[in-house]
Amino acid sequence: MILDLLDLKRRGLTEESFYFEYSPESEIQTDIPEVNLQLPIRINGQITLIGEHSAIIDAEINFSLCGECNRCLKVATKKYQVEISEEVDESSENYKVVNDKIDFGKIVYDAIIINMPIQFLCKEDCKGICMGCGVNLNDAECKCNNKESK
Length: 150
What we know:
Helix content: 10-25%
Oligomer: single chain
Largest sheet: 4 strands, antiparallel
Strand content: 35-45%
Order of helices and strands: EHEEEEEEH
């Protein structure tokens, strides 16, 4: 996914809004077992030229994860939203402008990896599974009165 600064300049623009539905060529792996990134990733943003070969990219990245909850093992899908603001130019350490083009896919990849949760929960207050009777405590009360489960 390439953003082209020269194309903006040719059209006489200094800024432009954009929207992408992005499916990377290589799969973005999560570090959470049994949890996968759902495609496409949705990106809504704006690029603003701030110099001859430089720009600021402000964007909202929306992605979903689907998999087993780490506490109750119920399959769930959760949506995540990440806001980014990146200044890019020919001398940037992280995201360089090369031939008036920006590899926006790398910016999106990094934003998702940095904002990936450490654990995947079906909901923030998931109660998990009773270690005594195995009931999902989100759906029913413990049947064994196991004090460790409460």
